[in-house]
TrEMBL record:
It comes from the Eukaryota. InterPro entries: Chitin-bd_dom. This is Chitin-binding type-2 domain-containing protein. Residues 41-74 form the Chitin-binding type-2 domain. Keywords: Signal. It holds the Pfam family CBM_14. GO terms for molecular function: chitin binding. Residues 1-22 form the signal peptide. GO terms for cellular component: extracellular region. The keyword Signal applies. It comes from Allacma fusca.
Amino acid sequence: MGFCYLSVIVVITVLLQGQSFGKVIQSSGIQDVNSLFEYDCTGKEDGNYPHPTKCTHYVACVAQKYAYEMVCALNHDGNPLHYVQDSGPDPATS
């Protein structure tokens, strides 16, 4: 239970500092799964967009300034899902 509270405090602290990097703790250690990377979000509304090269990733644009490379979720069998453009909600509301 204490670990959950510590995790929440760390996440809140990171968000307040203007950074939003996802981390996954695995038996092999901590691995970045979502990270800031170079992608032009200028003129794009907040939301999710197709990754330019990886179908198992997508780009989350925030404030027309920040781009985050996000890993798609896993399905019930543990296999990665793929981002399919125009298959879901409007990027502005996703």
